[in-house]
Design a protein that fits this description.
The complex is a heterodimer of chains A (339) and B (395). Helices cover 50% and strands 12% of the residues of chain A. With 339 residues, chain A is of the alpha/beta class. In chain A, the strands form three sheets. Chain A has a four-stranded parallel sheet with strand order 2-1-3-5, sandwiched between helices. A four-stranded parallel sheet of chain A has the order 8-7-9-10, with helices on both faces. Among the domains of chain B are: 126 residues, Rossmann fold; 148 residues, Rossmann fold. Chain B contains 14 helices and ten strands. A four-stranded parallel sheet of chain B has the order 4-3-5-6, sandwiched between helices. A four-stranded parallel sheet of chain B has the order 8-7-9-10, with helices on both faces. A two-stranded antiparallel sheet of chain B has the order 1-2. The longest helix of chain B has 28 residues. Classes of the chains: A alpha/beta (339), B alpha/beta (395).
């Protein structure tokens, strides 16, 4: 189908958000990838930033009440976090993500977020002020900058202030990502220096950041892994650009940039880990296809594919993780037959 | 040659006199070289997609200039193969198409075509190829337009040349491509009339028969004039069929996901079921309205009160068409999608809001790989009863 997406900004809306003092960031979805940037951006513009508290059962229930049944878990949680913030802050920041290239796309969920929030809240007859802009995240530098300048303009900031805030925000995010990637690289290096027997099992968790780092979703999995004595590495705490390039050897037409980075990280770290755990929030569209491709094509390391929904207990996940860790420890001793 | 006269006498020696027009010529005339046969013997198959296989056939035979493998009508087996070899929660079109590909390969195809899109569709081709090869089908190539997504037009051409037909004639292909676009418009225009009137046919099955005959005519068309002629003839026949349409029929607007809302196999013959309840149907979601005559900005302009961003590949069209149905006073709207289709799920709150603001009932249908349609029948009957009673009260 022909690509007819015009690179134009959204039609200007009447509302002016210059008097917004406190901006809410829902601790869900892209907050886990770009939260540092957004916080730095709004703080540079002199706004107070408030992040919702970590996910718990009540946030999930509020999100579920606002969502269509079939929505994915991550999207339900997002609405729950927005609801949590809506009454405390002047505006909730819900950006829409543009598609900078055919193979640097985001799930359509991220395109739809602001409209999803506005309509879901309108349906439930709850008030919410949404601060939003079409962000060219991961696109050409100029496009990305301009989208942030437009965002700053919504808040009544001048172009100069917008550019300065964007630069500072971008640096903050780069520092943050670099720090995480370096810490993880140090961890693998120090582990590889240990003698074979003393080395703990290292397990790579590959999941969207908002799944892997959300205590309510991926948290139960990583907790169970650590409780079983494994060192947990995260595929998203890896140099994004390097991972993206690596993924091009794997697939020519995988469209989603986050999934590409995860695949690239899996391939890069494959030899340094004992096993890989794919966690997916039910029913994630991109994961439904990428996980299939990974399990078909990435061989040589045991792979656990976990689909997490809003369970009321953690026993199911714990059993699976425990048996997976058992398999890996047997494997390290030379397999079942030699163990 | 000129006049030949033979002179015969009983016992005289035989003689003949020949007179030819024109001057002398060399013994061997210089001959025109025979045109190179540009036709490729590659057997190309598409997936099953409502009546568009007529257009797919034209694309293969007249644009790619290769052999077309027409898929058998999908059966329960098609979907079973498809779901068996794909993950559970991938969208339903993926399973339908995968099953269709297996049947195409069994029917002798050696090139399979897949499109590219904005959602999971972009990755369909690669994953399906992977699955088919893992299943042991190895003797085929994939014409997967995702491989050249975002590339200029000439890359599409050279990709088609490489995979299907190296001696493809570009000028002829382009001319036929224009004819193909016309064909798609006409197929959709024909179908619009069909949907609006087939529910009121006097002789059961007459519209369906006329439509099949029309598709057969279209299948035989080789160029623009024949396409136009087939359409004119088809529409004449269709308009000539007796109908018994009340002054204020129950009108239902169809909208939804681009594959499931259109393809009767995927939506368990939703249109046919509604037509059999004597409903006038409209479906704005089709190739003409989304691909050929589409402006994202202008479509979104009409729903600016509800939506400010492009929410997904067909979201704006879904919402705008539903809003138009409601403004035009339709009695109900049916939204169908495959289960788990993210962009269409995100449209649902907007449609619910529209439905509340305009007081028009909206039925949400989600299709997965189920094959029994009793549940659908019940829901449609209940929906029809509700909207026809509402109509009875207001008239």
């Amino acid at each position: 189908m022909p690509s007819d997406r015009k690179r134009t900004a959204r039609p200007p809306r009447g509302e002016h958000l210059a008097d917004v003092r406190v901006i809410g960031l829902p601790r869900a979805l892209m907050y886990y990838r770009l939260g540092t940037k957004w916080r730095a951006f709004f703080e540079a513009l002199g706004r107070e930033v408030q992040v919702s508290r970590p996910t718990d059962r009540s946030i999930f229930e509020r999100g579920e009440a606002l969502s269509v049944d079939e929505c994915c878990l991550a999207s339900k949680l997002y609405l729950g976090h927005v609801d949590e913030l809506a009454s405390h802050v002047d505006a909730v920041f819900c950006p829409s993500f543009a598609k900078p290239g055919a193979f640097r796309a985001y799930c359509t969920k991220f395109q739809a977020l602001p409209d999803l929030v506005t309509n879901a809240f309108a349906l439930a007859e709850r008030p919410v002020t949404v601060l939003s802009e079409l962000l060219w995240e991961g696109g050409a530098e100029k496009e990305e900058r301009e989208s942030y300048v437009r965002l700053a303009a919504t808040l009544g900031a001048s172009r100069k202030e917008g550019v300065a805030a964007w630069k500072r925000a971008r640096r903050a995010q780069e520092d943050h990502d670099g720090q995480l990637a370096r810490a993880q690289a140090d961890l693998t290096r120090s582990a590889s220096r240990l003698p074979e027997e003393a080395r703990p099992l290292s397990i790579l968790v590959a999941a969207h950041p908002y799944v892997a780092h959300d205590p309510y979703v991926g948290g139960i999995v990583t907790d169970a892994l650590r409780a079983n004595g494994a060192t947990v590495l995260f595929a998203d705490e890896f140099d994004h650009e390097r991972a993206y390039r690596r993924s091009q050897d794997f697939s020519p037409s995988l469209p989603w940039v986050v999934n590409r980075e995860l695949v690239g990280a899996i391939l890069s770290l494959h030899d340094e880990v004992d096993g890989v755990v794919l966690i997916s929030a039910f029913p994630c569209g991109p994961d439904s296809m990428t996980d299939d491709a990974i399990s078909r094509c990435v061989h040589g390391r045991p792979l656990l594919t976990l689909t997490v929904d809003a369970q009321s207990g953690t026993a199911g996940v714990e059993t699976r993780v425990e048996s997976f860790v058992d398999i890996l420890s047997y494997q390290r001793k030379g397999g079942y037959l030699n163990g | 040659m000129g006049e030949i006269r033979e002179v015969r006498q009983s016992d005289a020696p035989r003689a003949s006199v020949t007179v030819s027009a024109g001057g002398a010529r060399p013994t061997l005339l210089p001959r025109k070289r025979r045109r190179r046969d540009r036709h490729s013997r590659k057997k190309v198959a598409f997936f099953h997609y409502a009546y568009y296989d007529v257009a797919f056939q034209f694309f293969v035979e007249h644009v790619l200039d290769a052999d077309y493998v027409r898929l058998p009508r999908p059966t329960r087996r098609t979907l079973e193969i498809g779901s068996e070899h794909s993950t559970d929660y991938v969208c339903a079109p993926f399973k339908h198409i995968l099953g269709g590909y297996v049947e195409a390969l069994e029917a002798g195809a050696n090139v399979l075509v897949q499109f590219t899109g904005f959602c999971r569709l972009t990755y369909y081709g690669e994953l399906q190829e992977m699955i088919l090869r893992d299943m042991g089908y190895d003797d085929f190539e994939m014409l997967n337009f995702s491989m050249v997504a975002d590339h200029p037009f000439k890359d599409y051409v050279s990709y088609c040349k490489r995979v299907v037909n190296p001696s493809l004639s570009v000028p002829k292909g382009v001319a036929n491509m224009v004819a193909l676009l016309r064909m798609v418009e006409l197929l959709d225009a024909y179908n619009d009339y069909y949907l609006a009137n087939a529910g009121f046919e006097v002789e059961p099955g007459s519209f369906e028969r006329a439509r099949e005959a029309f598709f057969d005519d279209m299948r035989c068309a080789t160029g623009r004039s024949e396409i136009n002629q087939a359409y004119r003839h088809g529409m004449d026949v269709l308009r000539g069929l007796p109908v018994n349409k009340p002054a204020h029929p129950v009108r239902v607007g169809l909208t939804g996901e681009f594959y499931t809302a259109i393809d009767p196999i995927s939506n368990l013959e939703l249109e046919k079921k509604l037509l059999s309840m004597h409903v006038e149907l409209h479906r704005a979601v089709n190739l003409t309205n989304r691909i050929l005559h589409y402006s994202e900005e202008n479509t979104r302009r009409s729903i600016a009160d509800y939506v400010s961003y492009e929410m997904g590949p067909t979201s704006s069209l879904t919402i705008a068409s539903a809003k138009r149905y409601m403004e035009e006073g339709f009695d109900g709207v049916v939204h169908s999608k495959s289960s788990g289709c993210t962009p269409e799920i995100d449209c649902m709150p907007v449609l619910q809001r529209l439905s509340r603001d305009f007081h028009v009932p909206t039925l949400f249908l989600s299709f997965d790989s189920q094959t029994s349609d009793t549940g659908l029948d019940t829901r449609l009957e209940a929906f029809y009863d509700m909207i026809s009673m509402r109509k009875g009260r207001t008239l």
